[in-house]
Write a structure and sequence with these properties.
Number of strands: 4
Mean pLDDT: 93
Strand content: 25-35%
Oligomer: single chain
Largest sheet: 4 strands, antiparallel
Order of helices and strands: EEEEH
Strand order of the largest sheet: 1-2-3-4
Helix content: 10-25%
Number of helices: 1
Number of domains: 1
Radius of gyration: 11 Å
Structural class: alpha+beta
Distance between the termini: 27 Å
Length: 62
């Protein structure tokens, strides 16, 4: 699915039981876990939900 190019939009995705929040038109993703949320910087602005998920998986792979 193509992400809207609108900074007022956001996408929340669940990956391996953890929720992540992405505000469109940026490169920052937050893990939703209550309290201080972990913040990740994407390598580039994703254009699709699939790209967003792939980039999050690369950042969070241990």
């Amino acid at each position: 699915m193509t992400l809207l190019r609108n900074p007022k939009c956001y996408t929340d995705v669940c990956i391996d039981g953890k929720w992540y929040h992405y505000d469109h038109c940026g490169t920052t993703v937050y893990m939703l876990k209550g309290g201080a949320s972990a913040e990740f910087n994407l390598g580039s602005e994703p254009l699709t939900e699939g790209e967003l998920i792939d980039q999050i998986k690369q950042l969070t792979a241990f």
